[in-house]
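Subject: two folds for Thursday's group meeting

Dear M.,

Sorry for the delay on this. The cluster queue was jammed most of the week, so I only got both jobs back this morning. I'm pasting them in the order they finished. Each block is the input sequence followed by the predicted structure tokens. Could you check whether the formatting survives your parser before we put anything on slides? The first protein is the one we discussed after the seminar.
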Amino acid sequence: MSLFNLKNKSFLITGSSRGIGKSIALNAAMEGAKVIISSRKIDACNKTADEINELIGSEVAFPIQANIADESQLINLVEETNKILGKIDVLICNAATNPFMGSMADIPSDAFDKIMNNNIKANHLLTNLVTPQMIDRKDGVIIIISSVGGTRGSDLIGTYNISKAADIQMVKNIAVEYGKFNIRANSIAPGLIRTDFAKGLWENPKIHDHYTKTHPMRRIGEPDEIAGTAIMLASKAGTYINGQTIIVDGGATI
């Protein structure tokens, strides 16, 4: 059996109706997993689940609406996932927000609070909701999608970067606390990826041209190039990787 086989595995992926989350869901399903498609908009979830099910040829993707800013909706998301799939083997915290671009000195308090709540607290809450069953099974995987921004400063997305640095630290803590139960936690730090979330960067000609001109590979990344790392971490191929952050940026940070 392939090291990347995910047969009988159940995935809960936030922010999975599009972009990186959608790509992870599709590729996990192609490796045999069942996946929950979750985001704020149920129509988008339904559409993505239908696309995946049609491609796979069976019902392996299931939509659940959830706003990560609402704790009650996160609780419901986990409860409904358990009802539909029977368990959660892999939690992937992909949903995030960045409502402000500019200096830290200018960010409104409500935007700061939203970034911290959605990008850090929601991941913390979801982790606490899924770890009890993982402890019982002595098996589980938690993956947080961070960012290369979490490893550096920025005069454009500084507060977002702070939240992503916290995610990098969060997986270290999860690994230390739960590693003895065979629960592994890692983060992935993408560079600039062609997603709707990052449109404000890669659609800006000045930013795009500077990035690609100085980039070792002379291009930005694609969602599937992040999904491959997630599949590796979630499968047998990644069973001895714990508490780490894997940078997937084509070499930009070097």
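Second protein, same layout:
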Amino acid sequence: MDVYVMGVAIHPAADAVRNLRLEEMAYATARAALDDAGISRDEIDHVTLAASDEIDARGITSMLLAAPSGAYLKDEMRVTDSGLAGLHLGAMRAGSGDLQLGLVVSWNQSSIGPLEDIARMRGEPFFLRPIGLNFAIADGLYAGAVAARHGIGEAEVAERVRTRLQSAASNPRAVRREVPSAAEIAQSPRIAHPLRSGHRAPVTDGAVAMVLASGDWLRAHPGKRPLARIAGASWTVDRYQLDGDRLADTAVFDAALQDVLGRAGAGGIDDLDLVELEAQSGWVDVALTKAIGAGNRVAVSPSGGAWAQNPYFCTGLINAAEAALQVSGRAGPHQVKGAKRALAHGSSGFAQQTHGFVIMEGVPA
């Protein structure tokens, strides 16, 4: 793709942001991304928002959030799937030839309302909603399916959670957390067999913004230095049904992964330097890491992934921001040495129903 990342900003990590309204979070993050790119709001010609009315507890959340996100008197569109879907749309808009320079902004303040109650409203109304299906139950069904199909056990999951928390400890953009012992994770309460509370990444508040430029705009402004090029993007939606084959099979995930690798001109996963996975539980993390099949030279979730910070709706876009920071050498203490290509993954829906990918590529000086 002839689309470039000019600047990124991630709101300071916090389990709950109590001192700011959602509008203030969006404004501060969008403003910081523009500052990071050295670009004023007057220069942009479009804004892509990624937000959920339900999670924001707003009828049409963009009515209140568009202006503080930089979209006043700008061409504005919104997606409701996930933050990473916002990046997909924003990149296509910048690459269309009709628009040149824009913002992608996503946010999540789930501390203001119960996320699992919102999830119950998303269930199919005649069968799933009456039985109370929510994210926890769907994740428990997923865990049981991958345990049976792929031989994944609780000990392996607990060790993966510990690994991610240890990685997050070196990430300056992570919530500070103690790393529990394997025994503490094993003794944490059952949520939906075999899923335990210690297996799940804590949900946090947060926001993220990214400035995207077309290749035409960049060539017309040779003094501007991009952080990364979007080398490829792909996304897919699996079946809604939660049967065993849908839960345990990674065919849809695999197909989207191979598609994005092909679009980026990569011969395989081992042509990349790192992968930032969105995994809301250790069970998902282990299953998807096995599905990727990367060799030892490819770092997986060096940021700590969702265990660093997990603003549920926009975690995938944070992964993309981390990938852009990695290939520009700005990740911080968890920087992967010599990183040139990074894959960011995001998901949404019940039990990994949708998957999205973006490959970030470093831009030579």
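Two things I noticed about the second structure. The domain at 3-113+205-220 is CATH 3.40.47.10 (Peroxisomal Thiolase; Chain A, domain 1). The longest helix spans residues 22-37.

Cheers,
T.
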